[in-house]
Design a protein that fits this description.
The structure holds two protein chains of two kinds. Chain A is of the alpha+beta class. Chain A is built from eight helices and twelve strands. Classes of the chains: A alpha+beta, B alpha/beta.
């Protein structure tokens, strides 16, 4: 699977990182530059003001001519250096200095200005202080800024280089990360495609680590487990429906068809019709069980949960079944380890679940056998209802299967009545109550343990 | 008895109507909700049999709610293909008196109708229930037959009480499971038959007239012992 570089999310991510890096550098450099710039400028202005102060004192002592001489002298001796000096009379006629005329860029008011004096043929930027001396004389003292411009330029170049390095490293890193991410995703994608293609047993490779990819693979694998189980379940249910629902329907159909063809005497006809009604009742029974299962599976009944006393409920169901047990010579005992085991649940469904378990136990317990119903709490305090019998039990290999819909142990199919949905229903009720149904060995017999929550 | 049947399925309606007429009832059959509501308010019926899902704008529950709001207290038996316990509760809450899931056996329908019609006649406030020489004192919780005192377990007492309240009527196994035990499932074993036969042994001594009769394919009836 190839992804266009610019469209892959890894590339976008790298770009985003680079952009954030650039922003970070900018945010870091700008205040620094600003602080540096202002403090250097303050220092420059300070120097110029000191010069100006000296000139002004000279002006006060020796008058305009004295200052003009002094300035001319300095200009001539080139002590002025990079300084720009100009003294003018009130009409802005130059008296002394290294400018031929008053630059028009400098306003009449005194102050600090940062200008390029193009009007007098200068091309460098100048920091100039304009001072008004007594008598309307004007003094302009300036310093060339071009020398510090070099430093500034270097600063900007340095910043640019940092940006470039960040961009390069960021993009390379992004590319590498992208390759690493893509190979992981490719792996998952290829495996997933294989599974979607029909190989439901295939699973994603999972490393030993706790990386995001391993976690993701594990999660996806769990999802596939569930899907496989569901598909398996659906397949089983369709097979089971085919068998358990079609059989009575087929019997019914042939019964009715035979009646229509052979037209037996009325007595026989009525017998056949009664048999047909029984066939239909069997089908209806299966449908009702399926509908109830579907209803439980949706979980909507959870909204109707109410406080249920499991001990009393189990004792009532035991009383309900006791006469039937006695008829078969089975001793049905109710043992309550804790008197008031209560939970939030659906009493109708819980009674049916316990009823199904007892039904089942009575079906398989031998004559003169024993069935015991126990209500207790596990160490954590969750209610447990278990039904024990001393019948043949269920082989380990079939324990998981019997909970599946329509499954009936081969031993029971066709021998004992029932539609093979009883334990599925108990299991569904347990799930509804955030619990589970465990089937254990009773040596001999079966313990059906209904854990609830 | 005069009955109103509101049911859109023709075959089911014909089957029910025929059966009810043969049992000696007068039946008006209506096919849709609007007419059903019209008949229900304009004539006096002993019991109404109402399908839940009906063609037209008016469904069964709406009719029942409308009737109850207008003060009509005619007993109503709801017929429905919706079998969830929740749906059942919804139907009873709307004002129905009993709820029967389709498909049903005719015997079951007839037994429930009988129970409904008798219930409205009997006040339900009696202290002593009688069938022939069998007497149940509800306050003293004592049962005697002739001179003989019968000792019953609490659940047997409840079972006999239910049968006595419906003396002379057929009660089905489902009715007993629902009303005596409060369960809503079908036990796979013949539990009810065993309970009944245990009760029968206690109330019918060797020389006494049989009171509790089995109605084949449907249920039981407690007779006054003629």
């Amino acid at each position: 699977m190839r992804v266009r570089v610019t469209r892959s999310s890894a590339f976008t991510l790298a770009l985003l990182y680079v952009a954030l890096g650039v922003l970070a550098i900018g945010l870091f450099a700008f205040p620094l530059w600003y602080a540096w710039e202002t403090s250097v400028e303050d220092w420059r202005i300070e120097l110029i003001r000191e010069d100006t102060q000296r000139f002004a004192e000279l002006f006060n002592q020796r008058g305009p001519e004295g200052l003009a001489d002094f300035i001319d002298q300095r200009v001539r001796l080139q002590i002025a250096g990079e300084r720009t000096l100009l003294l003018t009379d009130p009409a802005h006629h130059p008296l002394a200095g290294n400018l031929k005329a008053w630059p028009t860029e400098i306003p009449d008011a005194a102050g600090v200005y940062k200008v390029t004096l193009k009007s007098v043929g200068m091309s460098n930027r100048l920091l100039a202080v304009h001072t008004l001396l007594p008598g309307g004389y004007a003094l302009l003292v300036g310093r060339d800024l071009s020398r510090s411009a070099v430093v500034e330029t270097r600063f900007w170049w340095g910043l640019g280089a940092a940006f470039a390095a960040l961009l390069l490293v960021g993009l390379c890193g992004g590319f590498l990360v992208r390759r690493a991410v893509l190979s992981g995703i490719d792996r998952i994608s290829r495996s997933a495609s294989a599974i979607v293609g029909g190989d439901l047993t295939h699973r994603l490779p999972v490393g030993r680590g706790d990386s995001e990819f391993d976690t993701l693979s594990r999660t996806i694998n769990r999802m596939f487990d569930q899907i496989e189980q569901l598909v398996h379940g659906v397949r089983n249910v369709s097979n089971a429906i085919a068998h358990d629902l079609r059989t009575p329907l087929a019997e019914l159909r042939s019964r009715l068809e035979e009646l229509a063809i052979s037209r037996p005497p009325p007595d026989e006809t009525y017998g056949e019709i009664a048999g047909a009604v029984e066939d239909v009742d069997r089908v209806i029974g299966i449908f009702n069980a399926l509908l109830r299962l579907a209803e439980i599976d949706t979980g909507v009944r959870r909204s109707g949960f109410e406080p249920v006393n499991a001990s009393a409920l189990a004792a009532d169901v035991v009383e309900f079944y006791r006469p039937a047990a006695e008829m078969k010579g089975i001793e049905l005992a109710s043992r309550t380890l804790q008197p008031d085991v209560t939970l939030a649940g659906d009493p109708v469904l819980l009674a049916q679940a316990v009823g199904n378990l007892i039904d089942n136990a009575l079906k398989f317990a031998p004559r003169d056998g024993h069935v015991a119903v126990t209500v207790a709490r596990d160490p954590v305090g969750r209610p447990i209802i278990s039904v024990e019998d001393d019948g043949p039990g269920i082989p380990d290999a079939e324990k998981d299967l019997v909970v599946e819909r329509f499954y009936r142990g081969d031993a029971s199919r066709g021998v004992t009545p029932g539609v093979g949905l009883g334990l599925s229903l108990v299991s569904a009720v347990a799930t509804l109550h955030a619990g589970r149904l465990d089937l254990l060995d009773n040596h001999p017999g079966l313990v059906a343990r209904l854990r609830l929550n | 008895m005069k009955l109103l049947l509101v049911e859109d399925n023709e075959r089911v309606a014909r089957f029910v109507t025929k059966g009810l007429r043969e049992s000696g009832h007068t039946v008006d059959h209506i096919e849709n909700g609007r007419d059903g509501l019209f008949y229900a308010v304009s004539e006096a019926y002993d019991t109404i049999i109402m399908d839940r899902m009906l063609p037209g704008q008016v469904d069964g529950l709406t009719i029942i709610e409308t009737l109850r709001r207008s003060g009509n207290q005619t007993p109503i038996l709801i017929l429905s293909a919706l079998s969830d316990v929740d749906e059942r509760i919804k139907g009873l809450r709307a004002g129905g008196d009993d709820y029967l899931t389709k498909p049903f056996a005719f015997g079951e329908l007839l037994a429930r109708l009988d129970a409904l019609m008798r219930r409205t006649k009997a006040g339900g406030g009696e202290q002593v229930l009688v069938a022939g020489d069998l007497q149940m004192d509800l306050l003293a919780r004592k049962v005697i037959r002739g001179e003989r005192t019968i000792l019953l377990q609490p659940r047997e007492f409840k079972l006999l009480e239910y049968l006595l309240r419906h003396v002379g009527q057929v009660v089905t196994r489902t009715m007993l499971i629902e009303n005596v035990w409060g369960y809503h499932f079908d036990p796979q074993t013949n539990v009810i038959d065993v309970h009944i036969s245990n009760l029968r042994q206690k109330i019918e001594g060797e020389s006494e007239t049989p009171l509790l009769r089995t109605v084949r394919g449907t249920g039981y009836v407690l007779t006054a012992g003629v």
